[in-house]
Structures are given as structure tokens and as C-alpha cells.
Amino acid sequence: MTGSTIKDTPEEWEIRGSQTPFRGKKTSVRTDDVVMPDGSVVSRDYQVHPGSVAVLALDGEGRVLVIRQYRHPVRQKLWEIPAGLLDVPGENPLHAAQRELYEEAHVKAEDWRVLTDVYTTPGGCDEAVRIFLARGLSEAVGERFEVEDEEADMELTRVPVEELVRGVLAGELHNNCLVVGVLSLVAAERGDGLDALRPAGAPWPARPFEA
Known about the structure:
Protein name: NUDIX domain-containing protein
Domain Nudix hydrolase: 47-181
Organism: Streptomyces ardesiacus
Largest sheet: 5 strands, mixed
Number of strands: 11
Order of helices and strands: EEEEEEEHEEEHHE
Strand order of the largest sheet: 7-4-9-8-11
Keywords: Hydrolase
InterPro entries: NUDIX_hydrolase-like_dom_sf (IPR015797), NUDIX_hydrolase_dom (IPR000086)
């Protein structure tokens, strides 16, 4: 690959049939009959997901705002960065990220940039996540958002970046957005710098949105 650009590209193989055997509150499961390169047809099951946003909120002391929340599928309390679903089709991801930071941490930020975009589990789910970097943090005004269910038990704290990196590499922190976000932050700092990151309104082909 020397001298070439490594870049994911869109492609869609022929689908001979499609069914949705399960529909949940926010996601569903789809079964597609997909034509393989040799002409054979195989079934592929995957979760259909609306997409998500996550926020790596970095304060002036080099600490990241993290929350600890119970996640039933893995039976663990995980340290995570604020995140949430794109509940409305076509929703502007920046607006969704600002809402999640306010609701989960009662914090607002002055400077927003795109840290990275990822597919969480492309072999079995079409979830796309945009992870934002938020800086210039301050306490939000107004009443706190009333949380419920798992969120009612959340813990909130700020942790130095280097401590999070240590936890990731030691296998002690497992949340996808936290891992990807923290390591991307360090890579950006060591590369062209945080100010060189994409603007908050950068296009997102995986989940197109209105500006």
C-alpha cells in the first residue's frame, strides 16, 4: 500500500430479499439475503441502529469528564464518556452531542470539534458513532435534567488523560467510545494538534444530517 491512500469506500452488494424478524423500541434485527462474489446467496443477520454521538469533554487541567453506568448486556458498571442515540432521523449530531453533555453532566462547552467517526460493530450492527471533542467547559445554567432507569445510578467524575490511557492499555476500561476517544485524543495531540481536527459540522456520510 506504499504511496496509496488507505480509505474506507462505499459499496453495496446485491440483496435478493430482506426481512425484519424483530423490532424493538430503538433498534431492530434485519435478515438480508446477500449475493456473494461467486454468485451464491447467503443470509446475514444484523442489528439496525439509528446511530449515536459521544462527547470527550476535556477541561483546562487535562482531565476528561467520565460517567460510570450499569450496562446490562455485559453485566458490568462501565466508565464511559457522555453519549446517546440519534433519536430523530436526520438530527444534527452536534446538537445531539450538546444535549447529551447537558443531560448527563449538566455541562456546556464553547469549542466543539469532530474527534473521530467509527462503526462500533460492523460485522453485526450498522451503528455509526461520531465522537466529538468538547473544550472550554463550564457548568450549564438552569435545572438539571431528570434522569431515570440506569442513568439514575450514574457516577460522574473527571480523570486525567494519562490515567485513562493507562486503564485502557491495562484492560481495565472497555467502553468503545471511551477507548477510541481517549486514544484518538492522544494521537491528535501528538500529531497536528487539536485545533487541526475537523470542524464540528463536518459531513458524516454514515448519518447524513441538516446543518
